[in-house]
Amino acid sequence: MSYELIGISVLWIFLYGYLIVASIDFGAGFFAFYAKATKKDHIINQLISRYLSPVWEVTNVFFVFF
Q1: Which H helix or E strand runs over 47?
Q2: Range of the domain at 64
Q3: Angle at 14 between CA 55 and CA 10, to 5 degrees
Q4: What is the chain's Cα-based Rg?
């Protein structure tokens, strides 16, 4: 296996993994927005609020740039 093929494979795996994590982040944000808009309180809202904290958003920016 050549170095080029290994390198592009690693990049595609990282991109695929980031797409999964980004879709979870988008879904959590949409769920939190919908819960606030309809004023419905769900059990999972506390977990989502922790997940969407500013610290986690800074971590996402770190993942994008590095």
Answers
A1: helix 45-51
A2: 22-66
A3: 145
A4: 16
Domain count along the chain: 1
User: Is residue 51 situated within a structural domain?
Assistant: yes
pTM surpassing 0.85? no
Q: What share of the chain in percent tops pLDDT 70?
A: 95
For residue 3, how far is the Cα from the chain centroid? Answer: 30
Phi-psi region of 39 (alpha: psi -120 to 50; beta: other; left: phi over 0): left
Tell me the angle at which helices 3-38 and 54-65 cross, rounded to the nearest 10 degrees: 150
Question: Is 37 a member of any domain?
Answer: yes
**Amino acid identity for residue 26 in this structure:** F
Domain annotation covers residue 12: no
